[in-house]
Amino acid sequence: MPKGPEKNTKNKALHTKLVNRKKAKLQDEKKEKALRLKTLVTRMNQKKSSDDSNNLPNL
After folding, report:
1. What per-residue string of b and e applies to 16-55 under the rule 16 or more CB within 10 Å gives b?
2. What per-residue confidence (pLDDT) applies to 2?
3. Res. 58 pLDDT band, cuts 50 70 90
4. The organism sits in which domain of life (predicted)?
5. Residue 33 CA from chain centroid, whole number
6. Nearest-angstrom CA–CA distance, 51 and 31
């Protein structure tokens, strides 16, 4: 029985490799963005808390 044409596994492997690389890059960018936002939020919270403590009236 004829099996049909040979499958092109070389191109499939290269495509999978490129797609996986792209996914990994996007995940890294997402993690870096989250980390930047987290540091920015903590910095703003610290600034806000220091401003609030400075604005309290002295009793």
Report:
1. eeeeeeeeeeeeeeeeeeeeeeeeeeeeeeeeeeeeeeee
2. 65
3. low
4. Bacteria
5. 6
6. 30
Amino acid identity, position 59 = L
Q: Cα(28)–Cα(54) distance, rounded to whole angstroms?
A: 39
The span from the CA of 58 to the CA of 35, in Å, is: 37
SS (H, E, C) the chain: CCCCCCCCHHHHHHHHHHHHHHHHHHHHHHHHHHHHHHHHHHHHHHHHHHHHHHHCCCC
Query: What average pLDDT score do residues 8-37 get?
Result: 95
